[in-house]
Amino acid sequence: MNGKILLCLLIVVFIGCKNDADIFPAQFSKTPDYAWVFPEDQVRTITIQLGQENWDKIQKDMEWRTARKFGSASTIPGVTPPVGAPLDAVYGDPIFVQAQIKQGDLTWKKVGFRLKGNASLNGSWRSGIYKLPFKLKFDEWEDQNPDIKNQRFYGFQELSFAPSYGDDSFLREKLLTQLFRNNGVMACKVAYYKVVIDFGQGFRNCGVYQVIETVEEHMIETQSGKKMGNVYKPESNMQQFISSQFEKQNNQTLADYSDVKQLITALNSPLRVSDNAQWKKELEAIFDVKEFLRYLAVNNTVGNWDSYGVLAHNYFLANTDGVMHWIPYDLNLSFQMRGGSNNSRFALSMDMKEVTSQWPLIRYIVNDPAYFAYYKAAVKEFIQKDFNPQVMGAYIQKHRTILQPYFAGTGVEAPPYSHLRSPQNVETAITALEKYINERYQVALDF
User: Which InterPro entries is this protein grouped with (predicted)?
Assistant: First the structure.
């Protein structure tokens, strides 16, 4: 055999027998390394070089989107938000700028950095707190920079950084996503990262963030074991299909909304009254109803006012093999029975009797006796297996131990690079969370 041909064959066999993480460096590995990016027992540190020029660009963009300067609750004289901008909120998605990222001995260049969020971003911006919610997209600038083509962070294209806004325990997002997954509901992986950022005046410790997996990238296929189709981030109560309320996260070039249209049609079909068995058959053909009922069991037990049934947001819909799945998201305001402006929002009760047909995905489903019985059984299983003082106490103690070194001694995060008024607030919040969980356990037990 020709020597060159033999050499080529050996190379092909060698590559074929190895994982691409063994061939590509962490900056370009195609395989998502969940264990490394989302460790369960430690806090990783990441450093972000923005610089003054980029910080100036971010401020100019945000002043246009909010009509407010950083650190000001008052509108800029003569500046009005864009037409259609919601009151006291951030209009649209902020711009991307180029940043350099360091983690350990590795560097990622020309990474896309942009602010994200709504209440957390708006509140942080007005308060002048540099601990802002943001997203990193590692290949955002690849069209202009071929040298970073398909750049990844240990296999991940995007990561979302949440500053634990409104959650001094730093536990809610991580805790609730784990509880959902334990009970057969897809939810993002979450890990703790200490974040250090240079805004142009030198590196500053912005403290502990919760790094959250992007829903549509690896998560769905990894957790479902099935091929992913359309993924939506809706702002809809599911009464009717309005395309602007179903933001596509993928397949944007294909104007195909047939799956979510089918779901809404089946849910709101008059068959629900005239032929209930057929209604359930058609609904289950397009939507994983039992998975949604398990979601309700967990969500209602822990208490989460910032979710569907109260507000029409903080969820994704994902299609796998023609069936739509409910994916909860943005959970930092969970483990609370009321909140919002002046505490005017209330989480759903365990029996959900107060929910009207304005929220058909809850009202119509739990009106069915068999579905409601499944929901009650899911609540019972949840509190027996996970949500009881013994199991939850052990879980919280584990994460209290992991976080404690970052809120003790010198060099801890502090305003204006933290939302914490005092590091002691973390322990106070964790103790309050334990007390709350014990109270909710009793409520669910009585139910």
Answer: Spore_coat_CotH_CotH2/3/7
Query: For residue 357, what are the domain limits?
Result: 226-385
Domains in the chain, number: 2
Together in a domain, 189 and 333: no
Give the list of residues 6+ apart from residue 33 with CB closer than 8 angstroms, or none: 21, 26, 154, 155
Residues 183 and 269 in one domain: no
Burial of 104 (0-12, 13-18, 19+ CB in 10 A): exposed
pLDDT along the chain (447 residues), means of 10: 48 43 76 95 97 98 93 86 71 95 96 94 95 97 95 96 95 96 97 98 97 90 93 96 94 87 98 97 98 98 96 95 96 92 92 98 98 98 97 96 94 95 95 97 96
Q: Which of 213, 248, 272 is the last residue of a domain?
A: 213
Residue 58 contacts residue 95 (beta carbons within 8 Å): yes
- Under 8 Å between Cβ of 282 and 289: no
The CA-atom distances, in angstroms, between 422 and each of 3, 39, 124, 212 are 69, 27, 17, 25
Residues 205 and 233 grouped into a single domain = no
Domain contains 6 = no
Q: Does any domain span residue 50?
A: yes
Six-digit token string for 14: 């060698």
pLDDT at 15 (0 to 100): 42
Same domain, 34 and 139: yes
pLDDT attached to residue 3: 52
Buried b (16+ CB within 10 A) or exposed e, 139-168: bbbbeeeeebeebbbbbbbbbbbbbbbebb
Residue whose token pair is 């949440």: 162
- 209 and 230 share one domain: no
Task: Return d(Cα 261, Cα 364) in angstroms, integer.
Answer: 17
Whole-prediction pTM:
0.91
- Are residues 178 and 254 both part of a single domain? no
Pair (276, 315) in one structural domain: yes
